[in-house]
Amino acid sequence: MPIDPERAIGADLGEESFSWTASDVLLYHLALGAGGNPVDERELRYTYERDLRVLPTFATVAANARTDEPPAVSFPGVEIALDKVVHGTQAVTVHRPVPPEGKAVARTRIVDVLDKGTAAVIMNETVVTEPDGGPLWTSRSSIFARGEGGFGGRRGSSERIALPDRDPDSVVDIPTLPQQALLYRLCGDRNPLHADPEFARAAGFDAPILHGLCTYGIVAKAVTDTMLDADVTRVESFSARFAGIVVPGETLRVRVWRDGERLLVTASVPERGGAPVLADAVLTTT
Question: Is 35 left (phi over 0), alpha (psi -120 to 50) or beta?
Answer without folding.
Answer: left
